[in-house]
Design brief:
Distance between the termini: 39 Å
Mean pLDDT: 85
Shape: globular
Low-confidence stretches: 1-41, 508-514
Radius of gyration: 31 Å
Order of helices and strands: HHHHHHHHHHHHHHHHHHHHHHHHHHHHHH
Number of helices: 30
Length: 514
């Protein structure tokens, strides 16, 4: 780490480091020429906001950096404030700058700013590093998560709090970085004489469960029961129930919940119940899951939308679509409003049962109840229509939705095109390809080759060439076999000159675009 910091500041003089207020981050972070993160944005609005007041307050600097459209602009605002007489950056200005730099993935700049913070006299809070830890975890940069944690003590000038320790540990466990989590826990125990509380114990219990070592998790809970400061709580038991359910030990999970209620007087919430509902559904035992839902109601815990959605999915997996539809009605009676995920789950299984007309009716119910279908919902229905060979209906849906202001994605068009090619419907496939290209979508590389070969096999040389040129404009280059098929067709059709013209116009030494 020390070497990395030294390298980041290789171009910084000792004089500039000794006077951090005068030190320009923007100047010294650009060690090599680079393009702006977002050249299309000139940041005129931000510059205008800065010019409104001659004196830059901390609040105005924070607001201006928050509105910055790229990393260089954020650094420029920060430096502009630095040279103002009497202005000293504080925790808030550094926090927003680091947040923006991380957002734009300028990690070299993050390191340099963190180094500068070690030279400042102002008081920093560890929350800055908790935000960075969560960012790096999101992007699977787990070593950097630990690195940010170790910045806390030298820069905040106090030991990391239990919150910081538990946050770092939990991020590692959630990412299934079991080795890193174990080493981190051992090092914190050694370096900070860590005395685990319930939060730390719960994370370690989750660590064992994710590692498949349920027995060790139970041993740890026994230690918690003996402790005076870290008794097992609802989170502890919920974690154990989840581990048992995922391992298929459902009877033990139910027994543990009963023990939690009767012996320890801890009442489960809807999330804890959902762990059991999900566990039974995943094992094809939707009827047992329904009994869990009934038990919830008897004990004054009202099922929420996630409980209903999980049970509905389980019923559909068991082929009990009618029961799932009744569950949807029951949900509404309970005062819950089904969302797009709930509807799409049911629509998906109805389509796969070959009942796409019924699924479309359910789509109309969604619209009537102001539940807006998303792209996934439409893609599920398009797939159902194609499996039933109702290609005209699928084609008309694609055409009509855009007129209604509904814009689908590349997958929507690929679903229909792939089915058309598979079924040998080359005329319809050609129409679909034209629609895709006009709307800026490109088929998958394999499908593009398949449609060209299919047109050639059908003897449609003109359509094959038209399709090829349309695809080529979008960056596509056919593979060797497709080239061979195209040229062979032109020669068989006594179109030798067009064959050579085709090769001359499209033969490029680039790799095929996938």
């Amino acid at each position: 780490m020390k070497a990395a910091v030294t390298q980041s500041f290789r171009g910084v003089s000792a004089k500039s480091l000794a006077s951090p207020v005068q030190f320009s981050l923007l100047k010294h972070l650009e060690l090599s020429p680079r393009e702006p993160d977002n050249p299309a944005q000139d940041g005129s609005a931000v510059k205008q906001a800065i010019r409104k007041s001659k004196y830059l307050s901390h609040e105005s600097v924070v607001d201006s950096i928050r509105q910055a459209k790229n990393a260089d602009q954020a650094l420029h605002i920060f430096d502009k404030a630095s040279v103002q007489r009497g202005f000293q950056h504080n925790n808030s200005t550094y926090a927003i700058l680091l947040y923006k730099l991380a957002q734009f993935h300028r990690y070299d700049s993050v390191d340099a700013v963190v180094h500068r913070m070690s030279l400042e006299a102002c008081r920093f809070h560890e929350g800055i590093f908790l935000v960075l830890m969560k960012h790096f975890s999101k992007w699977s940069m787990h070593d950097r998560v630990i690195e940010m944690f170790h910045h806390i003590q030298p820069i905040v000038r106090s030991k990391p709090s239990m919150k910081a320790i538990s946050t770092c540990l939990n991020l590692l466990v959630e990412a299934k970085e079991i080795g890193l989590a174990r080493n981190f826990l051992l090092s914190t125990h050694k370096d900070f004489q860590l005395e685990p509380n319930s939060c730390i114990f719960n994370i370690v219990v989750k660590y064992h469960c994710k590692n498949g070592d349920i027995d060790s998790a139970f041993d740890l809970v026994k230690e918690m029961e003996k402790s005076q400061v870290s008794c097992p709580n609802l989170i502890t038991y919920s974690t154990l129930i989840d581990g048992l359910s995922r391992a298929g030990r459902l009877r033990e999970a139910v027994d543990l919940m009963e023990e939690m209620i009767s012996k320890h007087q801890i009442l489960p919430d809807a999330l804890t119940y959902n762990l059991l509902i999900s566990g039974f559904c995943q094992r094809g035992k939707a009827e047992e899951a329904k009994k869990i839902m009934e038990f919830m109601r008897k004990h004054q815990c009202h099922p929420n939308i996630f409980n209903y959605s999980t049970l509905m999915n389980g019923l559909c997996i068991d082929g009990k679509i009618e029961e799932a539809k009744e569950l949807l009605k029951e949900m509404k009676v309970d005062g819950l409003r089904p969302d797009a995920v709930v509807y799409t789950t049911l629509i998906n299984f109805i389509c796969r049962a070959g009942r796409t007309t019924e699924a479309i009716e359910l789509l109309e119910v969604m619209n009537a109840t102001n539940c807006k279908p998303d792209v996934v919902t439409f893609n599920v229905i398009l797939g159902g229509l194609c499996r039933e060979r109702r290609f005209n209906k699928a084609f008309n849906m694609l055409r009509g939705l855009q007129k209604q202001g509904v814009y689908l994605n590349n997958a929507s068009y690929r679903i229909v095109l792939n089915f058309l090619c598979k079924e040998g419907e080359m005329e319809k496939a050609m129409d679909m390809l034209v629609m895709m290209l006009r709307r800026g979508f490109v088929p998958h590389f394999g499908t593009s080759n398949e449609i060209l070969v299919g047109l050639c096999t059908a003897g449609r040389a003109h359509d094959a060439v038209t399709a090829l040129f349309g695809l080529a404009e979008m960056g596509f280059r056919p593979d060797t076999n497709t080239w061979s098929t195209l040229v062979d067709l032109h020669i068989r059709e006594r179109m030798v000159l067009p064959a050579f013209q085709l090769l001359d116009s499209l033969l490029i030494d680039a790799e095929p675009v996938r």
